[in-house]
């Protein structure tokens, strides 16, 4: 049987690396698109790419950028993929306020370039997965969000993703193309970018535990999110393109956790019971109790500080997904709990920090 060919934009990211592993296990030929830069940024896929057998037979990397329409067209023409997974994006919400034009160019127009390329080339059998986001809901009035919940984006990132979402539906209806939007709620892992709040917490607290840093600066402690594991969500991305007809799906755990609670659970994983004092911008988190002895830590030591620098111009205070449609149609549900996720992240960051410091 002839192998399926998949093309993944954003393959060096968290989602791309997990999806690549999954597709290779399913005997796909995988083509990944990476941006050219002076520094190598393939850490998340080095364990795949450095295997010469996989590299030569089933896994290929190509230079490309969603801001370069000619190159995107050329790559899709030469690869002729059965499935395209568009995961590439300027995905940091806070950065999108500082780089709104670039964010729109990559996230919104980048999606347009892919869809137009497939349409122009007449690739009728190519299926497309468009990575969407729970940030579309923004200032929602609904306690839970599903496929029918109205959108109210609150950042240039979310607005650019809304363009891509509706564009995908438009091309699906106008040109009878197989395109699915995956409205993913927050998903994390040890491969999550280090500037995102969950990794800031896991790395920052690990550094404190090892006696390297004194405290971590955080923004809105009351922000509530529905956090899952990226490995779980990679399975969903593939499942969506295996259906008879294309549809859009909300993917989430259905459970909510605040940034404050995420910090508390991370501290417990390190043997720390954290306490809180103060209000608003002056609130701090301190070591209330040590469950495990640690020469680097003392009762009463402040380890969390709040900084206005990390507040968004327009905040999204609460997101909670309803994935009942995906559970019914795709027979999918998240398997990894938030406690298991945090345990995995802390374990990874402790080991990685020790390795870096040993090398230095």
Task: Provide the β-strand percentage band.
Answer: 15-25%
The low-confidence runs, each spanning 5 or more residues with pLDDT under 50, are none
Output the radius of gyration. 21 Å
Helical content class: 40-55%
Total domain units: 2
Annotated CATH homologous superfamily of the largest domain: NAD(P)-binding Rossmann-like Domain
Please tally the β strands and state the result: 15
Give the rounded overall mean pLDDT.
94
How large is the count of helical segments? 12
Just give the CATH class of the largest domain: Alpha Beta
In one word, what is the shape?
Answer: globular
What's the story with the biggest beta sheet? 7 strands, parallel
Q: How far apart, in Å, are the first and last alpha carbons?
A: 50 Å
Write a short abstract of this structure.
This protein has 12 helices and 15 strands. The protein is α/β, with parallel strands linked by helices and 360 residues long. The chain folds into 2 domains: 5-190 and 227-255 and 318-336, 3-Layer(aba) Sandwich (Rossmann fold); 197-221 and 259-315 and 345-359, Alpha-Beta Complex (UDP-galactose 4-epimerase, domain 1).
